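Justification of computing resources. Each target in the renewal requires a structure prediction run like the one illustrated here; the chain below, 525 residues long, is used simply to show the kind of job we budget for.
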Amino acid sequence: MSENKKRKRKIRLPKNTWKILSFAFLIFFVILIIFLLSLQSSRMQTFLTQKVADFLSDEIHKGITVGKVDIEFFNKIVLKKVFIKDNKGDTLLYLKTLKADIIEIDNENSRLYLDEIFIDGLKLKVIKSKKGKTNYNFANILFNKKTKIKFLKASTEKEKDWKFDFKKLKIINSSVSYKDENAKKHHFKNIFNKNDFFLENIYFSIDNFKNDSDTLTFKIEKINFLDKSGFYLKNFSSQHKISPKTIEYKNLKIETSNSKIFSKILKIDFDSIADLKNKNPNIAIEFLLKKSKISLKDISYFVPKLYGLENDIFLETELNGKLGDLHCTKLNFYFEKETELICNFVAKDITDFKKSNLYFNIEKFITNESDLEKIKVPPFEKKKNLKLPKEFGNLGKIFYSGSFTKLENDFIIKNKFNTDLGNINLDIFFRPLEDWKVYNFKGNIFTEHFNLGKLIYPKKSKQVFEIGIKNELKGVFKDKNLKAEMIQINSNFDKNKIDGYIIIDKENPFLSGKFTFDFKFKDLF
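Resulting structure tokens:
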């Protein structure tokens, strides 16, 4: 009975127990508030961040220092004066300011959503030694999957690949340099050297970067920089889409000190990256280039052999199809004041030229002496222009149309020239033999009423010396040294005509042909 009474007795707590618990909870809450507020303190944040930096420095045995850190209620991070040293203790990377606005951290889906990333005063200096080692090798330790960094490794969960999106990335007042100590120096200073460059005054802006499934989409709002070679990129902008089977650029704009290029679309479709390496005929291309100004001076920055060229050309094209069946419906070229080339082509299997079939059609080509003499001749660094015979100008404006056809090993070229002095037609057929070491050819040259007299003596207006040529040639090219074994010419001056036959290398005909010269004399003397 007494035991039952004991069981029924209520357990009584001291009267001040709830007060103690309430006070303890209040103390905990106050400490939590103080802790959170302390995290908003720049000094505390800098202290904690430097501890993390020290940890990383210990892990990779290199120096990382952070001058100042600000964290605003965990959604905005500001780092200032960030130094990362290289293998020799010199500065590899310096950041004056890094700001990042965090929208959401989705642990469940391994995604990070950022609003804006702002970087000011980035300086990156990469050096490759004569032994082939770079000064950032230690970074491989940090980002190597085998490296186990304590605070980044999940204890039990399987590691996931994190993806991140951001609305805007902006980099200003920055520079990037790279130098390979084994690189050969260019003979010319004004050449961009991929093994020794220094990009300064970098402005880089990207909008709406999204990583959906296996596809990246983003817009490059603007990129500009100045290289030590003198090449200045004023603006590069485009809308990008990159996936395992597509690379696409829309509204691509490139502007330099000398060039202005605009492409409405450049799209490449493929089944795998291996297709690009192997030049698979099923790779599809779509390219639309609006009329753009391209400076040969800009091209010469990247092609040393063209150094000295400074002419501007204008180009527009429409290209689509697969490498196995490529169609260019428009390829227009403009140079100086009057030179103009309007053409198109169809190419079958351009991945192997010897087996490919091509049809190149020149609808119109117009030029004149003045434009042609503005063309530089090699070596271009001497900046000497093409010099034509003074009689060439008497041809006036030259109009040309023709075609080039390749059917496996057969080449057919048709040409038609129209000038102020007359017309010239030239047709050529040739076929490579013996693994492209010997060329079998034949051709026809035809002119009618070509005023040779006015070409040679333009000041004598009454003089007419017209010539008509009908010439058939055939032979085999296989030696650079020509030697005439026999020349036979049959002529009949009474009919103002000369007929002839020529053979070079009688025993093994190198060149043979029949020709007819038809002259018309009027007021010649």
